[in-house]
Amino acid sequence: MIITVASGKGGTGKTTVAVSLAMALAEEVPEKVMLVDADVEEPNDHLFLDLKIERQETFGLLIPHVDDEKCTYCGECARVCQFHAIAVLGQNVMVFPELCHGCGSCALVCPEKAITEELSPTGVIEFGRVEEPPMDFMRGILNVGEASATPMIRELKHRLRREGITVIDAPPGNSCPVVESMRKSDFVLLVTEPTPFGLHDLKAAATIAREEMGLPVGVIINRDGIGDEGVERFCDEEGIPILMRIPMDRRIAEAYSEGIPLVKAVPGYRKAFVALYRSIRQEVAA
User: Fold this and answer.
1) CA 242, CA 57: separation in Å to the nearest integer?
2) What angle (nearest 5°) sits at the alpha carbon of residue 142, between those of residues 141 and 148?
3) Considering just the CA atoms, what is the radius of gyration of the chain in Å?
């Protein structure tokens, strides 16, 4: 099962939930567990884990390179590129690597076979092992200044195993990287807070997951009790189950600031996260 933990709004406790859920399951269930940090622009799951990185691979995009001796400047490459990463101006071909998504269409349609593709590194993908509790770990680290996180997240998703349980810590927001993190998941767990800001972004995230992608969704209300009832009304009206509530608790905030996971700072939450997983399984089966 693949569970993507998303938030819409940043700072709602998404990483706290993702790490705690993975750790609780690694301790309490027989299935193999993997935690994937897909927030490739600012991965921070490792701050809460006893982690050993075992392997690192360079990741990049295949950027077009034009052979001027073969090119007839017909413009087919520019016409097929929906990202405007290549342009033909007279007898000049301009390539814009920052816009390129590495799809290879330009090379495919070139009638003269004047375009080859060269690897342009954009970051690294790391594979490791959490010692306690034992589970597998994978993350992407995008180079500073790279324009698009989506290709790296797509590569992380390609490497997922289907057996066992995978918990994906998605990027914040509701843009393309989040959509890619959700894609082909079995369940999307949305972490929110009971405030107008939390409600606004929850609505967007729920719409993307349910209506655009057809995925089952559940909600966790973090810092429960500090705001208004707007989130609860929305979930009730939309038939979205509230699967867990985490009250405002100084112990949680202090532990987070020291890099201590919730399930270690307050051990009682371990069984709560296992119960959350069972609720998710019921929602998926329904």
Assistant:
1) 39
2) 140
3) 22
Q: Which domain holds residue 249?
A: 2-50+131-285
Helix (H, G, I), strand (E, B) or coil at 110: coil
Give the 3-state secondary structure of residue 135: strand
- pLDDT given for residue 98 in this prediction: 86
Is residue 55 a part of any domain in this protein?
no
Tokens of 29: 């269930």
Place of tokens 């371990």: 270
Among candidate residues 71, 92, 121, the one where a domain is terminated: 121
Residues in Cβ contact with 286 at an 8 Å cutoff, skipping those fewer than 6 apart = 216
The stretch 63-73 carries a mean pLDDT of 95
Q: What is the pLDDT of residues 176-197, one digit of tens each?
A: 999 999 999 999 999 999 999 9
Cα(216)–Cα(213) distance, rounded to whole angstroms?
Answer: 9
Closest C-alpha among 171, 168, 149, 172 to residue 9: 172
Domain check: are 13 and 109 in the same one? no
Residue 19: other Cβ atoms inside 10 A? 25
Residue (of 172, 147, 137, 153) closest to 96 by Cα position: 147
Q: Using 50, 70 and 90 to split pLDDT, how confident is the model at 161?
A: confident
Q: What is the mean pLDDT of the chain?
A: 94
SS3 content of the chain, % helix, strand, coil (to 5): 35, 30, 35
Type of residue at 165: I
On whether both 140 and 70 belong to a single domain, the answer is no
Dihedral sign of CA atoms 15, 18, 19, 21 in order = positive
Residue 115: closest CA among 134, 130, 102, 132? 102
Angle formed by the axes of helices 230-238 and 196-206, nearest 10°: 20
| Three-state secondary-structure class, residue 107 | helix
